[in-house]
Amino acid sequence: MQQYIGLIHKDAESDFGVSFPDFPGLVTAGEDLDDARGMAEEALAFHIEGLVEDGEAIPEPSSLAEIMASAINRDGVAILVGVKTDAKKVVRVNVTLPADVLQRIDAFAEAHGYTRSGFLAKAAEKAMQQEAA
To answer: Which segments constitute the HicB-like antitoxin of toxin-antitoxin system domain (predicted)?
Structure first.
C-alpha cells in the first residue's frame, strides 16, 4: 500500500477540502473530517487507476519535509492517505515514427480521451490479443 500526503484545507462556510501535492489538480472535499478522509481515499484510488489505464507513471510519494518546504502547502494540515495499487511499473521508451503517423496517433488519442502513451499501450495490447487468437 502506498501512502501519499493529503492536505486538508478549511475556509469559513466551506467543506473540508483535500488536495494532493504529488498529484497537482487532484482535489476532493467532505462535509466533516471523516467524510473528507473517505473522499480523499476514493479520489486518490480513482486517480491512480486512471493513470495506470492511460499508461502514465505514478509518482513516488514525497516526504512531509518536501511537501511542507513549499509555502503554498503550509496552510494545510497534512494527513496520510493510503491507496492499494496494482500498478505495473511504467517504463519510458523512445520510439521513432513517421511524423504523419505520429500526428494521426495524437489526433485520434485526443479525440478519444487517451494520452499518446495510453493509446499506444491499448493498441499494442489489442494487436497482440488479435495475433494470439
So the answer is: 4-124
